[in-house]
Write the structure tokens for this entry.
Amino acid sequence: MKNFHINTTVNGDEAEFICEPDETLLDVLRNRLGMTGSKEGCGTGDCGACSVILNDRLVCSCLVLAAEAEGGKVDTIEGMADGDKLHPLQKVFIEKAALQCGVCTPGILVAAKALLEKNPDPSETEIRYWLAGNLCRCTGYDKIIKAVQDAAAEMRSA
Amino acid sequence: MKYVKPESLHAASVLLSEEPGTTRILAGGTDVLVQLRSEVVEPDLIVDLKHLEGFGDITSEDGGFRIGAGVPSAEMYEHKALHAAWPGVIEGAELIGSTQIQGRCTMVGNLCNGSPAGDSVPGMVAAGAVVRVHGPDGERDVPVEEIPTGPGKTSLAKGEFITSIFLPARPERSGDAYLRFIPRTEMDIAVSSAAANLELDTDGTVTSARVAVGAVAPTVRLVEEAGTALVGSKLDDTAIANMMAAVEAACSPIDDKRGTVEFRTKTAGVLAKRAAHIAYERAGGSK
Ligand code: FES
Ligand code: FES
């Protein structure tokens, strides 16, 4: 298989990597760039644990070929906090215990951030529909929904 | 497996025609990557076309819209004029998968995947959408309903691919709608589905109607008799009953744990009725 040399931007920094044609963006983030925040729950687009922002769109990185990222822009969970300063969503998730095992959490945070950028004041129904592609086997979702609402309120008043 | 981003439509069709092995075209990748991963298909060649001119664009044309083959559902949803003109088409496209899938999946991919349950397909068929096909012999325009030929199969020849979809101009007093039945509230595959597209005259009489159903036959089906049953009516009970009978007669569904033949057939008729009423209201007909 012919390898590709890909140039892209990850969390605002230039990143280059070599990849095989059948490697996914998720594989490359985790195995070649050492960014293990994005998780692989299913590898088939069902669970959302691998959520990233690719060229300003929320996507499943397990359903993107790494080679497709050439010249593109990728934002991952690793870019969410500002140094040691957590994003309001991250802070509230911890305060409200909106996670248990944490495997779904990075994907949910990335997806929730994308939602709040489009809609700073979503209703509970809007949050539930937006996050329908993020599966959580632990929390039963209620604390997640509540945490997103609280973080949204905090961000609106900031 | 080779991954190639050809420089032109011509180069793409040459590559696809000359490859002796299995090929896949990559647009949103939400089906192709799943096939790769589950080893259902092991393509020898993947051709990525998203970067080619027009693939990512929604443009106005002859009062209608041309939608590039690489435009994801999320972008269509956000396009105000397109959404206002064809709410039923958008309704179908935005039911494909989750928010994450919406960020990548395309209507052309949904069509060429060839699933009889593809959510965006009945809406396009009812709309009278026409796809532009590029291939070794140049370009041709094909009505959308002629593309799927069976589960996972299309009428596209080797070396051919779809570059865009055209949705025609909307006359005044027209409306469309799409509905599906699923046992959950989100993130599921249609057990049956229906789309309706109506045009009315000034007193609310239907002058033209197209009805399409999904998941009840080997392909999404345009049911011409169902459309005919509505023309000349204001969706009175007799017209609706005739339309539902035509829809039921066009159904030849599979029987599986998600829905029996009887259930799929019956719900397709009911969904077509409801979609027709929504389309009528959107067209400005008072009921
Ligand atoms: S790992 Fe990508 S959606 Fe589950
Ligand atoms: S916290 Fe365990 S899957 Fe969500």
In short: Chain A touches chain B at residues 1-2, 4, 21-22, 24, 43-45, 48, 51, 54, 57-60, 62-65, 67-68, 111, 114-115, 129-134 (CB under 8 Å).
